[in-house]
Specification:
Layout: E1 6-10, H1 17-30, H2 35-38, E2 51-57, E3 60-74, E4 77-89, H3 98-112, E5 117-122, H4 127-132, E6 136-137, E7 143-147, E8 150-153, E9 159-164, E10 175-176
Parallel strand pairs: 4-5, 7-10
Antiparallel strand pairs: 1-2, 2-3, 3-4, 3-10, 5-9, 6-9, 7-8
Amino acid sequence: MTDRPRTLILNEDRIDRDLDTAIRELLSRCFPHRKPLFSRSRILGDNTPAFTVVILAGTLPIAHLAAVDRTITAGGEPFRVAGIANVCVDSPFRKQGLAGRMLDTAMQHAMKLGFDFGMLFCQGHVVNTYLRNGWQDIPPAPITYIDHGTKKQIPPNRHRLYYPLNKTTFPPGPINLQTNRW
């Protein structure tokens, strides 16, 4: 009998060297174009996760999601968002609802931590996964971020989604991530 995969919410101090290595290997398989980066670190830029959700089969991570803590402005008002990054499920475990389980776990935890919204940017081929799990389109507006000291805009081919937490409706108007994107 196979045990059901376990879902864990982890702070950085609970991710030991072995688990970090196993997560980086999973990320490298799921995002081969970023393998050189993930061979060194799970953390992209200064996007240290506020918490990480992993699903383990035994001791091996088979799914991963990172949430960064950001204060952004939208329509000129500040909001605290859980920026979702590096969502992946290892190939043999896809189509089993694991991404939805991680998203649900992450958003429940983010609500308890006082976040206003979940927020993410994704490619078109995965957008339906998020929409099926309660994520919503951010109203059309320019979204700026800082890249090496220069203001840039999120490319239009990236889907922009939010998840209502302690606030229910994402405000209209320009959005400033106030830092690099995650």
